[in-house]
Amino acid sequence: MMKIERVQGVVSLRRTIESGTEEQRQAVKRIIDDVRNNGDGALKKYTEMFDGISLDTFAVTQEEIEEAYWLVDENMVHIIREAAQNIREYHERQRETSWFMTRDDGTILGQKVTPLDAVGLYVPGGTAAYPSSVLMNVIPAQVAGVKRIVIVSPPNERGTLPAAVLVAACELGVQEIYKVGGAQAIAALAYGTETIEPVDKIFGPGNIYVALAKREVFGQVDIDMIAGPSEIVVLADETAKPNEIAADLLSQAEHDERAVSILVTPSLQLALKVEEEVEKQLAT
Protein backbone atom coordinates (compact mmCIF):
# COMPACT_ATOMS: atom_id res chain seq x y z
CA MET A 1 0.00 0.00 0.00
CA MET A 2 1.39 3.39 -1.02
CA LYS A 3 1.30 6.36 1.31
CA ILE A 4 0.80 9.76 -0.34
CA GLU A 5 1.99 12.84 1.55
CA ARG A 6 1.85 16.52 0.62
CA VAL A 7 5.04 18.36 1.54
CA GLN A 8 6.16 21.98 1.37
CA GLY A 9 9.78 23.04 0.98
CA VAL A 10 12.72 20.75 1.57
CA VAL A 11 12.22 17.31 3.06
CA SER A 12 15.04 15.41 4.74
CA LEU A 13 15.05 11.67 4.12
CA ARG A 14 17.53 9.78 6.23
CA ARG A 15 18.44 6.14 6.32
CA THR A 16 20.45 4.54 9.07
CA ILE A 17 23.25 2.28 7.90
CA GLU A 18 22.48 -0.98 9.63
CA SER A 19 25.17 -3.07 11.23
CA GLY A 20 22.70 -5.44 12.87
CA THR A 21 21.92 -5.95 16.52
CA GLU A 22 24.39 -7.55 18.89
CA GLU A 23 22.13 -10.60 18.99
CA GLN A 24 22.19 -10.88 15.20
CA ARG A 25 25.96 -10.47 15.03
CA GLN A 26 26.52 -13.16 17.64
CA ALA A 27 24.07 -15.50 15.91
CA VAL A 28 25.95 -15.09 12.63
CA LYS A 29 29.29 -15.79 14.31
CA ARG A 30 27.90 -18.99 15.86
CA ILE A 31 26.54 -20.16 12.51
CA ILE A 32 29.83 -19.49 10.74
CA ASP A 33 31.84 -21.30 13.42
CA ASP A 34 29.44 -24.24 13.28
CA VAL A 35 29.68 -24.57 9.50
CA ARG A 36 33.45 -24.18 9.62
CA ASN A 37 33.74 -26.99 12.17
CA ASN A 38 30.90 -29.31 11.13
CA GLY A 39 30.47 -28.76 7.40
CA ASP A 40 27.47 -30.34 5.71
CA GLY A 41 26.00 -31.41 9.04
CA ALA A 42 25.69 -27.78 10.11
CA LEU A 43 24.24 -26.81 6.71
CA LYS A 44 21.60 -29.51 7.04
CA LYS A 45 20.73 -28.39 10.57
CA TYR A 46 20.30 -24.73 9.64
CA THR A 47 18.38 -25.53 6.46
CA GLU A 48 15.87 -27.45 8.57
CA MET A 49 15.81 -24.69 11.18
CA PHE A 50 15.44 -21.65 8.92
CA ASP A 51 13.97 -23.00 5.66
CA GLY A 52 11.77 -25.70 7.15
CA ILE A 53 12.99 -28.42 4.81
CA SER A 54 15.21 -31.47 5.29
CA LEU A 55 17.53 -32.09 2.36
CA ASP A 56 19.51 -35.24 1.63
CA THR A 57 21.70 -33.37 -0.83
CA PHE A 58 22.36 -29.69 -1.46
CA ALA A 59 23.37 -29.86 -5.11
CA VAL A 60 20.68 -29.09 -7.68
CA THR A 61 20.08 -32.11 -9.91
CA GLN A 62 19.65 -32.27 -13.67
CA GLU A 63 16.08 -33.46 -13.09
CA GLU A 64 15.31 -30.27 -11.16
CA ILE A 65 16.66 -28.14 -13.99
CA GLU A 66 14.62 -30.05 -16.58
CA GLU A 67 11.50 -29.62 -14.45
CA ALA A 68 12.23 -25.88 -14.20
CA TYR A 69 12.01 -25.53 -17.99
CA TRP A 70 8.55 -27.11 -17.88
CA LEU A 71 7.47 -24.63 -15.21
CA VAL A 72 8.80 -21.46 -16.82
CA ASP A 73 6.81 -19.80 -19.58
CA GLU A 74 8.51 -19.90 -22.98
CA ASN A 75 8.32 -16.12 -23.17
CA MET A 76 10.26 -15.85 -19.90
CA VAL A 77 12.99 -18.09 -21.32
CA HIS A 78 13.19 -15.75 -24.31
CA ILE A 79 13.44 -12.73 -21.99
CA ILE A 80 16.22 -14.38 -19.99
CA ARG A 81 18.17 -15.11 -23.18
CA GLU A 82 17.72 -11.60 -24.54
CA ALA A 83 18.72 -10.03 -21.21
CA ALA A 84 21.78 -12.27 -21.01
CA GLN A 85 22.91 -11.17 -24.45
CA ASN A 86 22.49 -7.48 -23.59
CA ILE A 87 24.34 -7.84 -20.27
CA ARG A 88 27.17 -9.77 -21.88
CA GLU A 89 27.63 -7.17 -24.63
CA TYR A 90 27.84 -4.43 -22.01
CA HIS A 91 30.40 -6.19 -19.83
CA GLU A 92 32.50 -7.27 -22.80
CA ARG A 93 33.15 -3.57 -23.37
CA GLN A 94 34.18 -3.14 -19.73
CA ARG A 95 36.69 -5.96 -19.69
CA GLU A 96 40.23 -5.00 -18.78
CA THR A 97 43.07 -6.57 -20.71
CA SER A 98 46.74 -7.20 -20.05
CA TRP A 99 49.24 -4.97 -21.82
CA PHE A 100 53.00 -4.44 -21.84
CA MET A 101 55.38 -1.88 -23.31
CA THR A 102 59.15 -1.57 -23.47
CA ARG A 103 60.62 1.90 -23.11
CA ASP A 104 63.72 3.09 -24.98
CA ASP A 105 65.89 2.38 -21.94
CA GLY A 106 64.71 -1.24 -21.82
CA THR A 107 62.31 -0.78 -18.90
CA ILE A 108 59.24 -2.97 -19.25
CA LEU A 109 55.95 -1.54 -18.04
CA GLY A 110 52.57 -3.16 -18.12
CA GLN A 111 49.51 -4.61 -16.52
CA LYS A 112 48.68 -8.29 -16.16
CA VAL A 113 45.01 -9.01 -15.57
CA THR A 114 44.39 -12.44 -14.03
CA PRO A 115 40.86 -13.71 -13.33
CA LEU A 116 39.98 -15.32 -10.01
CA ASP A 117 39.85 -19.10 -9.98
CA ALA A 118 36.47 -19.38 -8.22
CA VAL A 119 33.64 -17.08 -7.15
CA GLY A 120 30.49 -17.71 -5.14
CA LEU A 121 27.28 -15.95 -6.07
CA TYR A 122 24.49 -15.55 -3.52
CA VAL A 123 21.00 -15.38 -5.05
CA PRO A 124 18.35 -14.22 -2.56
CA GLY A 125 15.17 -16.20 -1.98
CA GLY A 126 12.08 -15.48 0.05
CA THR A 127 9.60 -12.94 -1.30
CA ALA A 128 10.39 -13.33 -5.01
CA ALA A 129 12.49 -15.14 -7.60
CA TYR A 130 15.59 -13.34 -8.80
CA PRO A 131 16.85 -14.65 -12.15
CA SER A 132 18.21 -11.13 -12.66
CA SER A 133 20.66 -11.70 -9.79
CA VAL A 134 21.93 -14.77 -11.63
CA LEU A 135 22.42 -12.87 -14.88
CA MET A 136 23.98 -9.77 -13.33
CA ASN A 137 26.51 -11.74 -11.29
CA VAL A 138 27.34 -14.76 -13.43
CA ILE A 139 27.88 -12.97 -16.73
CA PRO A 140 30.54 -10.47 -15.50
CA ALA A 141 32.40 -13.40 -13.91
CA GLN A 142 32.31 -15.31 -17.18
CA VAL A 143 33.45 -12.29 -19.16
CA ALA A 144 36.33 -11.83 -16.70
CA GLY A 145 37.40 -15.43 -17.31
CA VAL A 146 36.56 -17.00 -13.94
CA LYS A 147 36.82 -20.77 -14.30
CA ARG A 148 34.56 -21.93 -11.46
CA ILE A 149 31.26 -20.20 -10.66
CA VAL A 150 29.14 -21.39 -7.74
CA ILE A 151 25.55 -20.34 -7.03
CA VAL A 152 23.96 -20.68 -3.59
CA SER A 153 20.34 -19.83 -2.83
CA PRO A 154 17.87 -20.80 -0.08
CA PRO A 155 15.44 -23.62 -0.97
CA ASN A 156 11.69 -23.14 -0.98
CA GLU A 157 9.14 -25.29 0.84
CA ARG A 158 9.43 -27.93 -1.91
CA GLY A 159 13.14 -28.23 -1.33
CA THR A 160 14.13 -26.72 -4.65
CA LEU A 161 14.92 -23.29 -6.09
CA PRO A 162 12.64 -20.99 -8.12
CA ALA A 163 12.31 -22.31 -11.65
CA ALA A 164 13.32 -19.01 -13.24
CA VAL A 165 16.54 -18.98 -11.21
CA LEU A 166 17.42 -22.50 -12.35
CA VAL A 167 16.63 -21.69 -15.98
CA ALA A 168 18.81 -18.56 -15.87
CA ALA A 169 21.68 -20.53 -14.34
CA CYS A 170 21.33 -23.32 -16.90
CA GLU A 171 21.20 -20.86 -19.81
CA LEU A 172 24.55 -19.50 -18.63
CA GLY A 173 26.07 -22.94 -18.22
CA VAL A 174 26.60 -22.82 -14.45
CA GLN A 175 27.54 -26.30 -13.22
CA GLU A 176 27.47 -25.82 -9.44
CA ILE A 177 24.18 -24.76 -7.87
CA TYR A 178 23.47 -25.44 -4.20
CA LYS A 179 20.24 -25.22 -2.23
CA VAL A 180 21.52 -23.42 0.83
CA GLY A 181 21.00 -19.85 1.99
CA GLY A 182 21.59 -17.42 4.81
CA ALA A 183 24.75 -16.97 6.84
CA GLN A 184 25.40 -20.69 6.56
CA ALA A 185 25.74 -20.42 2.77
CA ILE A 186 28.27 -17.61 3.10
CA ALA A 187 30.25 -19.69 5.60
CA ALA A 188 30.24 -22.66 3.22
CA LEU A 189 31.58 -20.51 0.37
CA ALA A 190 34.28 -19.05 2.60
CA TYR A 191 35.51 -22.17 4.39
CA GLY A 192 34.13 -25.05 2.36
CA THR A 193 32.27 -28.19 3.44
CA GLU A 194 32.26 -31.81 2.31
CA THR A 195 30.00 -30.80 -0.59
CA ILE A 196 30.93 -27.19 -1.35
CA GLU A 197 34.53 -26.24 -2.08
CA PRO A 198 35.59 -22.74 -0.94
CA VAL A 199 35.82 -19.81 -3.35
CA ASP A 200 38.05 -16.75 -3.70
CA LYS A 201 35.36 -14.06 -3.63
CA ILE A 202 31.67 -13.82 -2.73
CA PHE A 203 29.19 -11.66 -4.62
CA GLY A 204 25.49 -10.96 -4.29
CA PRO A 205 22.91 -9.32 -2.04
CA GLY A 206 20.96 -10.83 0.84
CA ASN A 207 19.22 -10.03 4.10
CA ILE A 208 20.88 -8.66 7.23
CA TYR A 209 22.23 -12.09 8.19
CA VAL A 210 23.85 -12.55 4.80
CA ALA A 211 25.34 -9.05 4.99
CA LEU A 212 26.74 -9.68 8.47
CA ALA A 213 28.13 -13.04 7.38
CA LYS A 214 29.93 -11.47 4.44
CA ARG A 215 31.43 -8.91 6.79
CA GLU A 216 32.51 -11.67 9.17
CA VAL A 217 34.29 -13.79 6.54
CA PHE A 218 35.97 -10.87 4.79
CA GLY A 219 39.69 -11.54 4.95
CA GLN A 220 39.24 -15.28 4.63
CA VAL A 221 37.74 -14.49 1.24
CA ASP A 222 37.12 -11.28 -0.64
CA ILE A 223 33.59 -9.87 -0.95
CA ASP A 224 31.94 -7.41 -3.28
CA MET A 225 30.31 -5.11 -0.72
CA ILE A 226 28.04 -4.98 2.31
CA ALA A 227 24.67 -4.47 0.64
CA GLY A 228 21.95 -2.81 2.69
CA PRO A 229 18.18 -2.73 2.05
CA SER A 230 17.27 -1.63 -1.48
CA GLU A 231 16.09 1.91 -2.04
CA ILE A 232 14.97 4.03 -4.97
CA VAL A 233 13.74 7.61 -5.42
CA VAL A 234 11.91 8.48 -8.64
CA LEU A 235 11.51 12.15 -9.65
CA ALA A 236 8.67 12.59 -12.13
CA ASP A 237 6.15 15.16 -13.38
CA GLU A 238 2.76 14.78 -15.03
CA THR A 239 4.32 13.71 -18.35
CA ALA A 240 5.69 10.47 -16.88
CA LYS A 241 4.09 7.07 -17.46
CA PRO A 242 2.47 5.68 -14.28
CA ASN A 243 3.02 2.04 -15.26
CA GLU A 244 6.76 2.54 -15.71
CA ILE A 245 7.09 4.40 -12.40
CA ALA A 246 5.16 1.67 -10.60
CA ALA A 247 7.42 -0.99 -12.10
CA ASP A 248 10.52 0.92 -10.96
CA LEU A 249 9.18 1.30 -7.42
CA LEU A 250 8.18 -2.36 -7.16
CA SER A 251 11.50 -3.55 -8.59
CA GLN A 252 13.19 -2.44 -5.38
CA ALA A 253 10.34 -2.88 -2.89
CA GLU A 254 10.17 -6.62 -3.63
CA HIS A 255 13.68 -7.24 -2.33
CA ASP A 256 13.20 -6.70 1.39
CA GLU A 257 10.54 -5.60 3.86
CA ARG A 258 12.97 -2.84 4.85
CA ALA A 259 13.34 -1.61 1.27
CA VAL A 260 12.31 1.98 0.55
CA SER A 261 10.65 3.12 -2.70
CA ILE A 262 9.79 6.81 -3.02
CA LEU A 263 8.13 8.87 -5.75
CA VAL A 264 8.62 12.65 -5.64
CA THR A 265 6.23 14.53 -7.92
CA PRO A 266 4.48 17.91 -8.13
CA SER A 267 1.42 16.16 -9.59
CA LEU A 268 -1.14 14.68 -7.23
CA GLN A 269 -2.90 13.20 -10.25
CA LEU A 270 0.25 11.30 -11.20
CA ALA A 271 0.71 10.07 -7.63
CA LEU A 272 -2.84 8.70 -7.60
CA LYS A 273 -2.36 7.00 -10.97
CA VAL A 274 0.90 5.44 -9.79
CA GLU A 275 -0.79 4.21 -6.62
CA GLU A 276 -3.49 2.58 -8.75
CA GLU A 277 -0.87 1.06 -11.07
CA VAL A 278 1.13 -0.35 -8.14
CA GLU A 279 -1.95 -2.18 -6.86
CA LYS A 280 -2.68 -3.41 -10.37
CA GLN A 281 0.83 -4.78 -10.90
CA LEU A 282 0.88 -6.38 -7.45
CA ALA A 283 -2.31 -8.23 -8.34
CA THR A 284 -0.70 -9.78 -11.40
TrEMBL record:
GO cellular component entries: cytosol
InterPro entries (UniProt xref): Ald_DH/histidinol_DH (IPR016161), Histidinol_DH_CS (IPR001692), Hstdl_DH (IPR012131)
Entries under Gene3D superfamilies matching the protein: Nitrogenase molybdenum iron protein domain
Pfam families, alphabetized: Histidinol_dh (PF00815)
Single Gene Ontology MF annotation: histidinol dehydrogenase activity
Family: Belongs to the histidinol dehydrogenase family.
PANTHER family for this protein: HISTIDINE BIOSYNTHESIS TRIFUNCTIONAL PROTEIN, HISTIDINOL DEHYDROGENASE HDH
Name of the molecule in the record: Histidinol dehydrogenase
Organism of this sequence: marine sediment metagenome
